[in-house]
Write a structure and sequence with these properties.
mainly beta, Jelly Rolls, nine-stranded antiparallel β-sheet, 9 strands, 0% helix, globular
Length: 118
């Protein structure tokens, strides 16, 4: 595919799923992902994600650029970092980040993920 791919700002048509119980720290959040594009090498992906209030453990092997469309999210790293973002904020989560992802207000984000082959 060589044409322009539009990225919707909604997850209509995707199935909401609960956060994996082994990673869940608080709440009973569900999340939806509508991946709009993946390259042929399966290293680059982009789309939209949304999630409900709750907190869970994360460990990133990929680099992720995010633009928060709605809500508020707090990310606390195992290294002691603590970042809160709100609708309109853009940020990058580098590969190797490990910690807690906490949705403070129902959130929706655009994402672009790059995970090079090992």
């Amino acid at each position: 595919m060589h044409g322009i791919v539009r990225i919707p700002h909604h997850t209509h048509g995707s199935t909401p799923e609960p956060v994996d119980g082994e990673r869940l720290l608080s709440g009973n959040p569900v999340q939806s992902t509508a991946n709009a594009y993946s390259d042929t090498g399966n290293a680059f992906h982009c789309g939209v994600w949304e999630g409900e209030v709750g907190a869970w453990r994360v460990a990133y092997t990929e680099h992720e650029f995010c633009h928060l469309l709605a809500g508020r999210v707090r990310m606390r790293g195992d290294d002691g970092s603590d970042t809160t973002v709100a609708a309109g904020d853009s940020f990058v989560i580098p590969a190797g980040f490990a910690g807690t992802w906490e949705v403070l207000e129902p959130a929706r984000k655009l994402y672009a993920i790059y995970e090079p082959a090992l």
